[in-house]
Amino acid sequence: MNAAFRALADPTRREILRLLVKRPLPSGKIAEHFSTSWPTISRHLAVLKEAGLVLAVRDGQQLVYELNTTVFQDVVQHLIGWTRPRK
């Protein structure tokens, strides 16, 4: 869970996730949306993947990234837990 929160703390990574809400995208298409270098975007994608927030599927010679909604559901449940009174 901590890895997911660390990944979500970065605005670039949150923007990558917003892009992936619409549809899975290859890494090159994701990088086209940012003015930063390709290696920087690649590192952001690696952090998101390591946190389990995205999945990467090989399609020929490219990696296609998509949201891992299961982990998002876990994060939401964790946040909801903070709103419940402790016993």
Short description, anyone?
By secondary structure, this protein is α+β, with helices and mostly antiparallel strands. The chain is built from 5 helices and 3 strands. The radius of gyration is 14 Å and the shape is elongated.
Count the strands?
A: 3
Uncertain stretches of 5 or more adjacent residues: none
Estimated structural class: alpha+beta
> How many DSSP H or I helices?
5
Characterize the overall form: elongated
Instruction: Write down the oligomeric state.
Output: single chain
Strand percent estimate:
15-25%
What would you report as the Rg, rounded to the nearest angstrom?
14 Å
The major β-sheet equals: 3 strands, antiparallel
Mean pLDDT: 92
Largest sheet: spatial strand order: 1-3-2
Would you state the CATH class? Answer: Mainly Alpha
List the helices and strands and how they pair.
Blueprint: H1 2-8, H2 11-22, E1 25-26, H3 27-31, H4 38-50, E2 54-59, E3 62-67, H5 69-82
Helix pairs in contact: 1-4
Short key terms for the protein model shown above:
3-stranded antiparallel β-sheet, 87 residues, single chain, Arc Repressor Mutant, subunit A, 3 strands, alpha+beta
Structure, explained:
Helix content is 59%, strand content 16%. The chain is of the alpha+beta class and 87 residues long. It has one domain (2-82): Winged helix-like DNA-binding domain superfamily/Winged helix DNA-binding domain (Arc Repressor Mutant, subunit A, Orthogonal Bundle), CATH 1.10.10.10. It has a three-stranded antiparallel sheet with strand order 1-3-2. Helix 1 packs antiparallel against helix 4 (38-50). It starts with a helix and ends in a 5-residue tail after the last helix.
